[in-house]
Structures are given as structure tokens and as C-alpha cells.
């Protein structure tokens, strides 16, 4: 798939006032599918693209021939932020349509008793965040802390680390940033 298809689909969806969720609902696909197409991560078949365009409505010929106006993405609406996580830990990426990002900003939602897994995470860069609600148990390089709302963290991501929501009843929400971006 060319970047042109990803750019064109996102442009025409927004121009018609549709969120990824709304277009997905109309087309009978997941909003994750729309997100992946717009990020140029999956290539829709001609039939799938035609099905999406019928929900706008627009023909394939119109889709490939209209002029795209250059638009700077500054704001990420909640409905347009793709969940790059799963049902247990949701990672909503701010600025997902921005090409060549220098940092990753996430709204992380940890379901009760969820964690990043038994294996410690390690990657290049730095990461930090602020707990917005609930509690998170953070382990970095063998030391564990329990963070409450308003508490923050910052560490080198090459150090082994893990996140866990210790509550059996409450969600934990964090706003985090990492550089370079891991998503």
C-alpha cells in the first residue's frame, strides 16, 4: 500500500467528520483496522477499500483523484487515538498520525490486576509518567515502588522494568512519555 492511500483515507474520513470508530462501525470493521490502514501498517484490498469508501460515500476513482490539502495534526481526539495495547492494558497514542515523531506520549489504562508480564521490559531511551488515577506498582532494576495519583516516575528504559496494577477493583490511568518513541 502506498502512503498515499493511508493519507487519503485519513484526510477524507476527517473531512467528512467521521471518527475512526464511526467509520469502522459503518463499515463493519474494528476501529483498530482503520487505525492500522491510516498508519500505513496494513494494506486494504481493493474490495475492502471500496467497502470503506461506500460509507463516506465516495468512488474509488474519486478517492484516487481528489486533491489532498496539507493538514497539520496538532490535536488528537480521544476517538481517534488508536489503542496499541490490548484489553488488559490499553495504550492510547497521542499524535499517532504525526510522521517521524521524536517522542511517544501515551494514555495508559491498566485494568484491575493487570501487568506488563512476568518478563522485565528493556529498551533504548528514557521514559516517564504521572499517575492520574488508581495506583501502579513500578519495578525498576529490582526496586519496587507503589505510586498514587499525582506521583511520577522517570528512568532509563534500558534498566529492567515492569508495571502492575495491584488493585482488584480499580483501574489505573497514567499519562506517560518515552523518547525515542517505542510505538
From TrEMBL:
Question: Gene3D superfamilies annotated for this entry?
Answer: Jelly Rolls, lambda repressor-like DNA-binding domains
State one Pfam family annotation: HTH_3
Q: Name one GO molecular function term.
A: DNA-binding transcription factor activity
**What keywords sit in the KW lines?**
DNA-binding
- Outline the extent of the HTH cro/C1-type domain: 9-63
Q: Which GO terms describe its cellular component?
A: cytosol
Name the SMART domains on file: HTH_XRE
Identify the InterPro entries for this entry. Cro/C1-type_HTH, Cupin_2, Lambda_DNA-bd_dom_sf, RmlC-like_jellyroll, RmlC_Cupin_sf, TransReg_Diox_bact_type
* Protein name per Swiss-Prot or TrEMBL: Cupin domain-containing protein
Its ancestry begins with: Bacteria, Pseudomonadati, Pseudomonadota, Betaproteobacteria, Burkholderiales
Amino acid at each position: 500500500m502506498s502512503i498515499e492511500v493511508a493519507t487519503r483515507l485519513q484526510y477524507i474520513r476527517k473531512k467528512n467528520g467521521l471518527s475512526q470508530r464511526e467509520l469502522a462501525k459503518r463499515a463493519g470493521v474494528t476501529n483498530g483496522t482503520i487505525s492500522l490502514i491510516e498508519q500505513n501498517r496494513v494494506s486494504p484490498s481493493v474490495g475492502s477499500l471500496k467497502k470503506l469508501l461506500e460509507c463516506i460515500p465516495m468512488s474509488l476513482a474519486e478517492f484516487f483523484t481528489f486533491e489532498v490539502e496539507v493538514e497539520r495534526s496538532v490535536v488528537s481526539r480521544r476517538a481517534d487515538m488508536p489503542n496499541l495495547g490490548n484489553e488488559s492494558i490499553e495504550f492510547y497514542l497521542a499524535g499517532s498520525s504525526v510522521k517521524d515523531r521524536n517522542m511517544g506520549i501515551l494514555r495508559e489504562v491498566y485494568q484491575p490486576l493487570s501487568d506488563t508480564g512476568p518478563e522485565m521490559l528493556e529498551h533504548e531511551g528514557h521514559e516517564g509518567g504521572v499517575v492520574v488515577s488508581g495506583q501502579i506498582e513500578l519495578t525498576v532494576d529490582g526496586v519496587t515502588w507503589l505510586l498514587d495519583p499525582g506521583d511520577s516516575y522517570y528512568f532509563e528504559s534500558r534498566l529492567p522494568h515492569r508495571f502492575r496494577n495491584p488493585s482488584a477493583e480499580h483501574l489505573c490511568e497514567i499519562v506517560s512519555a518515552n523518547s525515542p518513541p517505542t510505538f
